[in-house]
């Protein structure tokens, strides 16, 4: 689950971390096999008809700026609590499906991704946690079965022409301190080298995001940050960019996303972001669950009514415009959402305003779907999945955000 934001400076210091439940490995693998077999039968014919179109698209890397690319991105959806799931009990060689479903999500299928795209989303963010899959050797070798599964899921969306964002998600090893900087940099370079080489020939519809919400976990200023951490994050971002640019294939022109401290929307952290120079293919990544009490808070002060409180949204868009957009630096709100409080009408009004405000300054938004629908936690779930049966839990919410994103 996302941690409550401990900030005395305002509700714009926003971020998330996730939690879930551990599933049964044997039943998970059985479910995964069944889904794979059924999905293959249903999609083979359709995929064969699209092969020529897909092959042409797969290798296209246009020499365009990220500002131009981001204009093509309308509205997005996160495959949350899935490939980003982690486990303290599974062995590194365990079947990839056991990790993928460790927090309760279904095994990802082509049908699931198609359902998302057919609803109007044209961006799929695929959060991936790698630390459970890195061998303890001098090269930080990524377990091949995990890399293969990640590529398979990427291809579900990429092969349909969607924009795909692939990242490092829950990684404990890049704690942003001076003491840890060199060790974190070494590992980050090794991991991104392997990812970059695997996807080297993919075109500009595949975007790499260097880190997810890098922050000082467990510290008193975990969600607000400090100058040391901000500097280290800037240095790690630069190492990420330099690494990808030095690889072969299409990586010299790969569009790359970089976060500030915790991917925070607080202006202090936004102002501290150092964007690599002389590179027009860099995108700033921001997460913003605002206003906090309506969108994210699960404790004291939480409210179910939005009451047309646009202050935080307006402030964020103004800051993004002044700090980045006006300078030719694009921004993607890689995570946003308002949890369910049995307030669908309020959420529809809120999301219409939020997405419209972001669209006006050219910023696409990506909903955080964590597949959570009940209980007292952070219920951001939208798409319910049971095998290959898919349904939108709140279709009016999906329709509202898609319509706002595509409105003229």
Write the layout of secondary structure elements.
Elements: H1 25-58, H2 66-71, E1 75-79, H3 96-100, H4 110-118, E2 123-126, H5 144-158, E3 163-167, H6 178-198, E4 206-209, H7 227-245, E5 256-259, H8 267-271, E6 282-287, H9 292-295, H10 311-323, E7 331-336, H11 344-360, E8 365-369, E9 383-386, E10 389-392, H12 395-406
Parallel strand pairs: 1-2, 1-8, 2-3, 3-4, 4-5, 5-6, 6-7, 7-8
Antiparallel strand pairs: 9-10
In the predicted model, the low-confidence regions spanning at least 5 consecutive residues are 1-27
Count of separate DSSP helical elements: 12
Biggest sheet details: 8 strands, parallel, barrel
Instruction: Summarize model confidence as the mean pLDDT.
Output: 89
CATH class: Alpha Beta
CATH architecture: Alpha-Beta Barrel
Distance separating the two termini: 36 Å
Strand order of the largest sheet: 1-2-3-4-5-6-7-8
**How many domains would you count in the coordinates?**
1
Radius of gyration: 20 Å
Total DSSP E strands: 10
Shape: globular
